[in-house]
Amino acid sequence: MELDKKLEDFKNALEKLNDAYLKAMEHKNSEDYPFFRDSTIQRFEFTLEIAWKSIKSFLIKQDGIECRSPKSCIREFFTVGYLSEDDTFKFLEMVDDRNLATHTYHESLAEDIFGRIANYIPLLKKTLHIILYK
């Protein structure tokens, strides 16, 4: 998949993640909240997947750097200077949360991950912007 297609998918996934998060927050005190929370977590998983694959394609095209895993691509993205140390640390946490998301049948874990998504959305938007405008 070429970079332009990945970026379009990344942009669309990020918009849907943001919408899902806002919808979940609207239902925070309703009996439907777990459904909206879990939907947001699943959108988060999809969005992070296309985000790191966009980074991978971008690094190959822009800098000739090949990486194979989410964490190696994020580290390379930092090494080249696209992310700050703080953003890199947060991005690596995001990958860990995505890996833990398969265990969202644990209510407390689902709540923890959902609670951090609000902090991840701005970083994902920033990453998309970096890739689009470099």
Structure notes:
- The structure is a single chain.
- The chain is mainly α and 134 residues long.
- It has one domain (3-132): Four Helix Bundle (Hemerythrin (Met), subunit A) (Up-down Bundle).
- The chain is 80% helix and 0% strand.
- The protein is built from 5 helices and no strands.
- The protein has helices at residues 3-26, 33-63, 70-79, 85-100, 107-132.
- Helix 3 (70-79) runs antiparallel to helix 4 (85-100).
- The longest helix is centred in the middle third of the chain and has 31 residues, at 33-63.
- It is elongated and about 50 Å long.
- 30% of the residues are buried.
What is the gist of this entry?
With 134 residues, this protein is mostly helical. It contains five helices and no strands.
State the shape: elongated
CATH superfamily: Nucleotidyltransferases  domain 2
**What is the CATH fold-level name?**
Four Helix Bundle (Hemerythrin (Met), subunit A)
What's the β-strand tally? 0
CATH architecture: Up-down Bundle
